[in-house]
Amino acid sequence: MKVISIFPFAAALLGASLFPAGPGARAAGANRVLSVDNGLIRATYDPANSIFTLTELSAGRTFLRDGHLLTAGGGAAVVELTDPIWGAARGIEITQASGAVTRLLVYPQLPFVVLQGAIANPGDSTLNLAQVQTMQGALDLGTKAEDLRARGTMGLTGVDAAANPGSYAFLAVADPATRAGVVGGWLTHDRGTGVVFSSLEKDRAILTAKIDYGRLLTAPGATTPLETFLLGWFADARLGLEAYADAVARQYAIHLPPQPTVYCTWYHARASNEKALAETATFAREHLRPFGLGVIQIDDGWQDGSVKPGFKKNGPLRNFNTHRPAGPYAAGMKATADSLTAAGFTPGLWLIPFAGSVEDPFFDDKQELFARKDGQPFVAYWGGTCFDLTVPAARDYVRQMVHRIAHDWGYRYFKLDGLWTGSATSILYVNTGYLVAGGKRQEGDDAGLVDFHDNRVTPVEAYRSGLKLVREAAGPEAFILGCNVAQNMRTLGGSFGLLDAMRIGPDNGRSWSSLTRGPFSGSSVYFLHGRVWLNDPDPLYVTDQGLSPAFARLLCSWVALSGQLNASSEDYAGLSPARLHLLQRTMPAHGLRPRPVDFFEERIPAIWLLTDDRGPVRRDVVGLFNWHDKEATVINRPLANLGLDPTRAYVAFDFWGDRFVAPFRDSLIAVLPAADCQVLAVRPVADHPQLLSTSRHVAQGIVDVIEETWEPSAGVLAGTSRVVGGDPYELRVAAQRPAGVWRSLRAEVAAADAAAGVSITLKPQDGWKVRAEISAPASREVRWRLAFE
Fold first, then answer.
1. Backbone angles phi and psi of 146, in degrees to 5
2. I need a labelling partner for 367 at 20 to 30 A (CA). Which of 75, 108, 357, 475 fits?
3. Interhelix angle for 274-287 vs 333-342, to 10°?
């Protein structure tokens, strides 16, 4: 088969140059400007100049100008079509004589213009594309381009190419003063890796969307559909990123399971063993399971494997079919899972599913499993010898391995490491912005240079087929965590719709620089959490060894408030009571979708707002974080900028300071010591007593208060709370009125609760500040009433 490779772009073989066509490149009879809209956004195409523009209709802002498409110079027409997921659409279709096509589509209620395309091969040789540039245009946000900020997988940068090397899957460009901006994101990653770039050209911000395929083959006379791209303008670009994540969830029919709270052996004891794990489970069953800990996961070190003489070990051992006979789990992995299940925990296991070890004699008779480069098995540093997931034998190997772990041994939580090996590419760790092997910033990397048994399958396509295979073998009830995108960002969009959770950053640690890795990564992709998957920022730490109380409080508060996956890897029994108490206040996850406030201002946002408006009582919790370990910081934020009602006065409770905060209006002002935080429950000042906070959880009522009502005729504040047995539970009530305060009279619990040994004590009142403490011998829902006059 004769193959012609085009790097990086397809040009002449597509029937026209890609960018730009320029004036005069017009189709016969196609001079009329075409336009489609859905009431939210309008796409306009000028066939005479092969230029498109995009306009957001509520603001009347044309936010993208001089846009150029893959099919510049083609004939154009307005079309109507129906998508099985998105329904009816109107669009502009631009088609070249070669058959290459691009569509600008609008769907009802979708605040994006959808770009779809297909390449065509009019030649007589197979066409191989490594990368395709699908669009490029100038952004018009009414702000100087150099004042704009870009938010992508590399974090917060300027829009110039030197600052912004390119972002995988998505990019937001916004005015930090207003948050107004453009969001571009790849809706699909079925066969390729979507990348978005920004740059400065002649004082204009330029947005460019490309797809890395590595190797995309199109037979003579055939067409190949490309990935789908979304582009829209938003008065608050944070909402645009959330809308993008919602669209991805709809595209891939994502339905996330309940969020677990996890213990992992990795940072606690890398040489974990049966005895130590049993002791951890016993302690956790009493002290942490009642608060929400549900999974105990075994990390690297359990599996079998060896290295042949004369070979060098490359990362972990990789025979995940059995344990090391003389290793830490000599009784076997099934026996270990059974003991964890009996203790009331879901057993979890770490493995690398898509690679073996050419240096291990176990794989000597399994050479057909491996992808090849230059005729030799392809070895990725640390990841291992990559499987060729287009080979039936390799797929059978993965299927049988995962099925054994899930169904024969009984593990229901999977931590899948080294995932990028499923695409047979190199490790790029730590990878955030657009990178290639060796750390150089350029277009393309070694994707597609490794041969599969079936080279019609792209690297991302092979990877996705592997994840689907794992899910099929593990079963629908298994929880699957990917680890981690920082090893190679092709696993970001390539994993959409196929994982329950994803490690969204590199390994962390107990040093200050590594402690902030999770908050950086988790903040940058906060909008994916709870929509596309559960973000895993790596474990939080509460250890007494080398970690100050403020440091521990800071990290724990961020994980608990942001709501991302809560995993810990500590010697639980060795913690002081204060540190164990700190960990208990982070469990379980609240299951909501909080939002960073200063997302376009700070590399690691310092302000988060968690809002629970699911019931008649709205609860807001504001998290203030100082990510500087050497200096104090002052936060002064208008209430409207936080997301609170600027016309109201608010009262607050400082969770870690254990203090009521006097009413304030207009702005929230706080002084934070170095590497410390405040977590404030805030409510508008009312003319009757209201529950402001509880002691159960950092979220201060969101995870534990089931209902709260004020009975004006009786002067009673009543509610129901989930109380943990043996854990004193305090209600913090603001008892204000227009002239003076409400005086607390008595506190009581329901008769059934009192019969079960539950008691409540009303503490001495301090002005408008009222506290009552509930004690319960066993965990239960407690109905309580506080009477006032």
1. -70, -15
2. 475
3. 20
Q: Distances from the Cα of 628 to the Cαs of 443, 554, 659, 686, in angstroms?
A: 35, 11, 24, 36
Does the global pTM surpass 0.90?
Answer: yes
Q: Which residue blocks in 216-314 are alpha helix, DSSP H? A: 237-251, 274-287
Q: Is 268 within 8 Å of 625 (Cβ atoms)?
A: no
C-beta neighbour count of 465 within 10 angstroms: 15
Residues in the chain, pLDDT under 70: 1-30, 269-271, 437-444
Tokens of 639: 């209430």
703-732 burial: b if 16+ Cβ within 10 Å, else e: bbbeebebeeeebbbbbbbbbbeebebebb
CA 195 to CA 257: how far, in whole Å? 29
Could you report the per-residue pLDDT of 21-31, keeping only the tens digit for each? Answer: 333 333 333 47
Encode pLDDT of 345-368 as tens digits.
999 999 999 999 999 999 999 999
Measured CA to CA, the distance from residue 53 to residue 148 in angstroms comes to 20
Rounded-to-integer distance, Cα 116 and Cα 160, Å? 27
Encode 588-616 in three state secondary structure: CCCCCCCEECCCCCCCCCCEEEEEECCCC
Query: In the prediction, which pLDDT does 2 show?
Result: 52
3-state secondary structure 629-660: CCCCEEEEEEHHHHCCCCCCCEEEEECCCCEE
pLDDT of res. 436: 72
The DSSP string of 395-452 is: HHHHHHHHHIIIIII---EEEE--GGGGGT----SS--SS--GGG---S--STT-SBP
CA atoms of 126 and 676, how far apart (whole Å): 60
Q: What's the confidence (pLDDT) of residue 439?
A: 63
577-584 and 549-562 helices, crossing angle to 10° = 20
| DSSP annotation of 763 | P
Burial 440-458 (b: 16+ CB within 10 A, else e): eeebbbbbbbbbbeebebb
- What is the spatial distance between Cα 784 and Cα 617, in angstroms, rounded to a whole number? 17
**Cα separation, 77 vs 57, whole angstroms:** 22
| Span between the terminal Cα atoms of the chain, in Å | 89
Check residue 437 and give its pLDDT.
62
CA 11, CA 21: separation in Å to the nearest integer?
A: 12
- Please state the φ and ψ torsions of residue 775, each to the nearest 5 degrees: -125, 130
pLDDT for the residue 25: 33
